[in-house]
Each structure stands twice: as structure tokens, then as C-alpha cells.
From TrEMBL:
It comes from Kryptolebias marmoratus. Residues 50-303 form the Nucleoside phosphorylase domain. The keyword DNA damage does not apply. The purine nucleoside phosphorylases catalyze the phosphorolytic breakdown of the N-glycosidic bond in the beta-(deoxy)ribonucleoside molecules, with the formation of the corresponding free purine bases and pentose-1-phosphate. Catalyzes the phosphorolytic breakdown of the N-glycosidic bond in the beta-(deoxy)ribonucleoside molecules, with the formation of the corresponding free purine bases and pentose-1-phosphate. Preferentially acts on 6-oxopurine nucleosides including inosine and guanosine. Pfam families: PNP_UDP_1 (PF01048). One of its GO terms (cellular component) is cytoplasm. This is Purine nucleoside phosphorylase. It is an enzyme of class 2 (transferase). Its EC number is 2.4.2.1. GO terms for biological process: purine ribonucleoside salvage.
């Protein structure tokens, strides 16, 4: 189980009713922690997923298109964190999309929930050990690029890891060579093949007009941006901003998984002091609901094709 050595344990445990106990706190997970969870899952299911889909805020129904489903609540899986954010159901769904065996995370974890980045990225290493080859990460984000509209889907071509600049990085700590090298290259974190495939599939489905490509920036949250922060992000070259995904992508790339990132633009980030609209999480979830069916079609079609692409490459 997790070793109770988080430098923050004393802080969290000093809040009455805190979610954090010495048992759930960790600084680093050991290989045995990952192994235990992987073996538990492999014993509980006959599914052997090749593709993992991480569903962000309000996007859990991406799993609905799968057949032969088997569901596990996060709280029942040894070592798994639990979801605390509305719109994150908190279960792992195994199933098939056409002939491809998949695993869907209905809800993922965030720094702002108080989890360590080792906990946030824990499932990604489980997927790797289960034999997953490609990861599709989806989430909700605010549009910084003035051309973006609410409801656009941005194919992530690159990211800026702002918490990483401040030392909040999932690969800090001892490096386990069984997963990957000490200094991984991140200039190609998002597979070019998968990005091209996403554009092709989007065009086939007639949704090219709201498919975008751009740079996603992760902030820790939980507050939405001030106008000065939003302007800074625009200057830095960010097209959208959110509070997740980058740790999972970094750990996935570190362990040699192919990554595709899709972010739904749920709101336009205010860059102007005269704008009256105020963003809130309910609005984010509302837009996710509005686009869910189309995103599901996109993801489902992509999964069949990306597995085919993977087979052809071997
Ligand atoms: O990134 P996901 O989890 O999709 O959700 C995004 O939306 C929430 C804020 O509304 C934050 O969690 C932000 O990161
Ligand atoms: N940081 C951030 N995260 C989001 N998630 C959805 N919209 C937003 C946003 O505007 N800012």
C-alpha cells in the first residue's frame, strides 16, 4: 500500500474532516503498489485493454458506446484514489469498441483535490502494466485563443506544464527505469499519427468546422483565471487552459504509451475587463453534455482506427 511519507500529511491531517489520512497520502508509489493493483484488476476481469480513455469533467459517457462492459468503482480498487469533483463519476469501465478492448476512466484526479501527482497519475501506470498501448485523454478547458468558440474540440498538439515549472511534476522523485528513463523527451508527447487520424475522422464525421489544434496549458486550479493571468497565458502561446491532463500525459509518454489529447472548449476565458460573463463549473458541465454525443462518436470511431494503425505499425 501507499507509504505514508507525504511532506504534506501533517498539513492535510490538521483539517477536520479532511479526505487525507496517513493511509491515502503518499510521496511516491512503489512498483509493488502498481503491481498489486494491476494484479487485482487482471484477476477480476478477462478484458485485456489496448486503449485507455481518460474522461474529464462531464465526459464519462464516452464509455457508453462500449459493449460487454464491466465496471469497478474506484473505492473498491486497491490503492485507487476516489473522485471528489462533480462530473467525475469515479469508476473504471472495461469494455469493447468493435474488436478493441478498452478501459475507460469515468473521472480523473486533480492536484486541487489535494492528491499528490503520484496519485493523480497512478492509473496510467496501471494501464501500462495491463498492456495498454494508446491513451486518449479528454477534458474540459477554457478557450484562450480569441478565434475559439464554445463547443470547439481542440486536438492538443503540445502543452505547457505550469505546475511542473514550479516543481509540481509527476516524474520528480526516484526514477523507476521499469517505467521509463530519467530524462524523457516531451517534444513529441502527442502522437502525430493520432492527431492526423483525429483530423481525418473528424472530417469524415462532418465536424471539421469545430475541430481545432493548439497548445493546452495546465494550471493547478481550483480558481478560474484572473484576467491578467489569462492575458499572460495568451502571450505565452497557450490556446486553452485547464486544471488536468498534463500529469497523465507526461507519465504516459514517459512509459512509452501513444497519446492523443482532446479538450472541449467549454467557455471563453475572459481577456477583457469589460466582459461581464463569469465562468462556473455548472456551465462547464452543461457544454460537456451538449457535445457528449458527438465526442462519443469521435472517440469511438478513433479507437477502432487507432488500434488498426497500431497493428499495422508492428
Ligand atoms: O480537466 P477536467 O477534469 O476535465 O475539468 C476541468 O473543468 C473543471 C473546472 O470546471 C476543472 O476540473 C478543470 O480541469
Ligand atoms: N483553468 C481553467 N480550467 C477550466 N476548465 C474549464 N474551463 C476552464 C477555464 O476557463 N480555466
Amino acid at each position: 500500500m501507499f507509504s505514508p511519507v507525504s511532506p504534506c500529511t501533517w498539513l492535510y491531517s490538521s483539517f477536520p474532516g479532511s479526505l487525507h489520512t496517513p493511509e491515502t497520502e503518499c510521496y511516491c508509489c512503489s512498483f509493488d503498489d502498481y503491481k498489486l493493483t494491476t494484479e487485482w484488476l487482471l484477476n477480476q476481469t478477462n478484458h485485456r485493454p489496448k486503449v485507455a480513455v481518460i474522461c474529464g469533467s462531464g465526459l464519462g459517457l464516452l464509455a457508453d458506446g462500449a459493449t460487454n462492459k464491466q465496471t469497478f468503482r474506484y473505492q473498491d480498487i486497491p490503492n485507487f484514489p476516489v473522485s471528489t469533483v462533480p462530473g467525475h463519476e469515479g469508476c473504471l469501465v472495461f469494455g469493447k469498441i468493435e474488436d478493441t478492448s478498452c478501459v475507460f476512466m469515468k473521472g480523473h484526479f486533480h492536484l486541487y483535490e489535494g492528491y499528490s501527482l503520484c496519485q493523480v497519475t497512478f492509473p496510467v501506470r496501471i494501464f501500462k502494466l495491463m498492456g495498454v498501448e494508446s491513451v486518449l485523454v479528454t477534458n474540459a478547458s477554457g478557450g484562450i485563443c480569441p478565434d475559439f468558440k464554445v463547443g470547439d474540440i481542440m486536438i492538443i498538439k503540445d502543452h505547457i506544464n505550469l505546475p511542473g515549472f514550479a516543481g509540481q511534476h509527476p516524474l520528480c522523485g526516484p526514477n523507476d527505469e521499469r517505467f521509463g528513463i530519467r530524462f524523457p523527451c516531451m517534444s513529441d508527447a502527442y502522437s502525430k499519427d493520432l492527431r492526423t487520424l483525429a483530423l481525418d475522422v473528424g472530417s469524415e464525421l462532418g465536424c471539421s468546422h469545430f475541430l481545432r489544434s493548439g497548445v493546452y496549458c495546465m494550471v493547478s486550479g481550483p480558481n478560474f483565471e484572473t484576467i491578467a493571468e489569462a492575458r499572460m497565458l495568451l502571450t505565452l502561446g497557450c490556446d486553452s487552459v485547464g486544471m488536468s491532463m498534463v500529469p497523465e500525459v507526461t507519465v504516459a509518454k514517459h512509459s512509452g504509451l501513444r497519446v492523443l489529447g482532446l479538450t472541449l472548449i467549454t467557455n471563453k476565458v475572459s481577456l477583457d475587463y469589460s466582459r461581464e460573463e463569469k465562468v462556473n463549473h455548472d456551465e462547464v458541465l452543461e457544454i460537456c453534455k451538449m457535445r457528449a454525443e458527438l465526442l462519443q462518436k469521435l472517440v469511438t470511431t478513433l479507437i477502432g482506427r487507432c488500434q488498426l494503425q497500431s497493428i499495422n505499425r508492428h
